[in-house]
Each structure stands twice: as structure tokens, then as C-alpha cells.
Amino acid sequence: xxxxxxxxxxxxxxxxxxxxxxxxxxxxxxxDMAPDFEMSLPSGEIVKLSSLRGKVVMLQFTASWCGVCRKxxxxxxxxxxxxxxxxxxxxxxxxxxxxxxxxxxxFAETTKVTYPIGLDxxxxxxxxxxxxxxxxxxNIIIDKDxxxxxxxxxxxxxxxxxxxxxxxxxxxx
Length: 173
Known about the structure:
By secondary structure, the protein is α/β, with parallel strands linked by helices. It has one domain (about 30-170): Glutaredoxin. It has helices at about 1-20, 65-85, 100-110, 125-130, 155-170, and strands at about 40, 45-50, 55-60, 90-95, 115-120, 140, 150-155. The longest helix has 21 residues, at about 1-20. Mean pLDDT is about 90; it is low at about 5-20.
């Protein structure tokens, strides 16, 4: 009987771990059209996602209080932004969740990122893509046709490297 309980406990724990890996609390999936939105940058400039059609787009949901975001952002800066920032077929926007412009500006300075970070003061943009209360960091890669081609959650180097290769490949097409 004890072995049966141990087996059931193992199955429950292992099954839960797999479910957590699969369910990252996204509302969208790969192959979906990326939900459109308008976003303000701290400069006052407005960015509309649909106006970026024809470009490969990376969205990174972030916030200053997110330790994992702070760990990931220098990699985004060096391995993606610096490589592709001058490519007219590429766009990268951080989207800061529920913080004022002053905090976002200071956050960009302390993390030393130069890619644009937009404002999502009520997490309404975030809620188009994931459950409103779900965690960050998240990256969404969108192809030139506006379809989602990759969704990430948290920061794992192997997955990040796959994302870098995907972006490079999409831009080589």
C-alpha cells in the first residue's frame, strides 16, 4: 500500500510539473494572429502593433520589480537588439507592466538596455496575450504576416538561444 501511495504521489508531482510547463497562462498560441494594440512610449510616441506588419516583431513583457526580467534583458540587448536594431524588417519593444514612465526610464537606464520600452499601465496589453495575473518575463515573436511564431516564459538559456536562431532565420527569409 505504501508503494502505491508513493507511486501516486510521484505521478501527481510529475504530472503537475509537466502541466506547469505546458500551461504558461497564455491566452494566445503559436499560429494565432497577434492581438493588435496601441502603446505609448515614455517619449509620448504611439506604437500600433498592426503598423509593424511586414516586420519580424519581438515583444518582451517586463517590469522593474521582475528579477528574471533583469537577468534576461542584457541578453536581449546584446544578442538581439544590437544585432538587428538597424534592420528595417525588425522591431523590438519591451512592454512594461503597470509602472509609470519615470520608473520605466530609470529601469532601462539601470539595466543598460537601449531598445524601446512601452507603457502598459493597467496591464491591458498584457491581458490580450496572457492571463492578467500571470507572471513575466514573457517574449512573443511575431512573423512578418502578424502571426505568433514563438512564446516564451521565464528565462532559460537554451530556449533563449532557440529564440535568437528563430529571429535570425525569419530575418534571413
